[in-house]
Amino acid sequence: MAADGATDIVATARRMPLAEALELREREGRPVRVGVIGAGQMGTDLLVQIALMPGIEVVAHCDSKPERIAAGCEIAGARCRKSETVTSASEVSQVIARGRLAAVSAAELVCRAPEVEVVIDATGNPNAGAVVALTAIGAGKHIVMMNVEADITVGAYLAEQARRAGVVYTIGAGDEPTSTMELIRFVRSLGYPVIAAGKGKNNAFNVDATPDDYREEALRRNMNPRMLVEFVDGTKTMVEMVAIANATGLVPDVPGMHGPEAPRAELQSYFCPKQDGGILSRRGCVDFTIAKDVAPGVFCIAEMRHPRLRERMNDLHLGPGPYYAFYRPYHLTSLEVPLSAAAAVIHGESHMHALPVPVAEVGCIAKRALKPGDVLGRIGEYLYRGYSMTRAYAREKNALPIGLAQGARVLEPVAKGELIPYAAVELPGGSEIARVRRLQDEMVGG
After folding, report:
1. E-strand stretches of 86-131
2. Closest C-alpha among 276, 294, 286, 299 to residue 254
3. Do the beta carbons of residue 180 and residue 199 sit within 8 Å?
4. Of 25, 61, 108, 422, which has the maximum CB count within 10 A?
5. 140 and 261: one domain?
6. What are the pLDDT digits (tens) for 147-200?
7. Same-domain status, 86 and 145
């Protein structure tokens, strides 16, 4: 009877809106049990945010420096479990049973812990993200990826493996891709064609940016200089827009996208076909604007040709059409991610994931002239930046996917500003994400 009662509660929760379902879990003493990988800025944000929410808690956390987990728990306050550092699977279970948070340095211990229902990857490292996702999926856990760099490289394969395993693979809510996805789904559900979708770029746009140039600003903003540069040099924007492309079928109109200074009030005038006064050579694109009044928001441009619809939209002060901009003025980054973890466990829902066949890619542009023997560093450092393109263009140019770049050794000279081709580098041995990318290429045929 108890088992039947528990089954009834689960079924009831699945029919509830997420807020009510979490409150039910809180009342029943069965919170969603989360494991987190990475205790940097994003991982600490997760500890703080989840501690404020009913019906969900972090029970296990991994970082190479477990003392950072303890510091994050202190920041999160009394509602967060106190951390206890352990080194074995049995100790993880014992600590969780005692009402404490198991802090470990091996991600596998979190991914395989029986008590963990959903794993959130907050490493920001593409190779680590691929390892974490496959380990979690293999252990029958739902996986929430904050690691968009991994998703644009091997997301189609990861999503397929999750489907086969009967678990959810999802990009986390709160970042621009999932925030934009909300608008795209809204527009599509009403039957309107999506002409374009994208974001306002948050930071200055300097394609030659390096960590040395932005160290002072990064420290002032409590950021890692490399992570700040990933935003400034445009890489993050390219990555985010390609994630949207691969989840929707929308594509970059041109390599690198247009990125005009399109103000909030004129988004629909810029991101529409050229024959109607816009900049697009086709319908169904991803792009971004550098106008200051759009960031940190996201947008979706819909087309409405029916005169009755245009009459109504005009009555609602949304303009004469036929193109209309739907706009969300914010995204809450790490703070919304727990919603994806809860939705995966309670509703079996993915907020966003790649389609079976990718339509776009982020390649690498050399920030300076590269010579044989150079070793490519991390995204946001000194030698390359991201550059969006269609999958067809990437295959034509044999472009090196940005998620495979770290640790690659340069074999041939590459001029500053040129795309880095596969043939110009040797990938590091033992790269898990390179192995998975080969599997994805075999899966999708290319």
Report:
1. 101-104, 118-121
2. 286
3. yes
4. 61
5. no
6. 999 999 999 999 999 999 999 999 999 999 999 999 999 999 999 999 999 999
7. yes
**Per-residue model confidence as pLDDT tens digits over 3-42:** 555 566 666 777 899 999 999 999 999 999 999 999 998 9
Q: Are residues 339 and 438 in the same domain?
A: no
pTM score, two decimals? 0.95
Check whether 136 has a pLDDT greater than 60: yes
Is omega for the bond preceding 356 within 30 degrees of 0, making it cis?
no
Classify residue 278 by burial, with Cβ atoms within 10 Å: 0-12, 13-18, 19+: buried
Spatial CA neighbour of 124 closest among 221, 235, 40:
40
β pairing state of 251-252 and 169-171: unpaired
Domain assignment present for residue 209? The answer is yes
Q: Any idea what the CATH number is for the domain that residue 371 is in?
A: 3.90.1210.10
Q: Kind and range of the H or E element at 189?
A: helix 176-189
Cα 38 from Cα 56, distance rounded (Å): 18
Whether residue 219 is predicted with pLDDT greater than 70 in this model: the reply is yes
Say whether 37 sits in a helix, a strand or coil: strand
- Residues sharing a CB contact under 8 Å with residue 189, sequence separation 6 or more, in sequence order: none
Q: Residue 240: CB partners within 8 Å, gap ≥ 6?
A: 148, 175, 176, 177, 199
- Please tell me the chain's helix, strand, coil percentages from 3-state DSSP, rounded to the nearest 5: 45, 20, 35
* pLDDT digit string, tens, across residues 81-128: 999 999 999 999 999 999 999 999 999 999 999 999 999 999 989 999
355 falls within a domain: no
Contact 427, 434 (CB under 8 A): yes
Is residue 91 domain-shared with residue 16, that is, in the same domain?
yes
d(C-alpha 295, C-alpha 318), whole Å: 20
State yes or no: cis peptide before 252, omega within 30 of 0.
no
* Chain center to CA of 296: 16
Range of the domain at 416: 360-444
CA 299 vs CA 97, 200, 238, 285: distances in Å:
45, 8, 16, 12
Torsion of CA 382, 383, 388, 391, to 10 degrees: -150
Residue 395 resides in a domain: yes
Contacts of 311 (CB under 8 A, 6+ apart): none
- How many angstroms separate the CA atoms of 331 and 194, rounded? 21
- Which residues, 6 or more positions from 210, have their beta carbon under 8 angstroms from its beta carbon? 229, 367, 381, 382
Domain count, the chain: 3
Domain-embedded: residue 159? yes
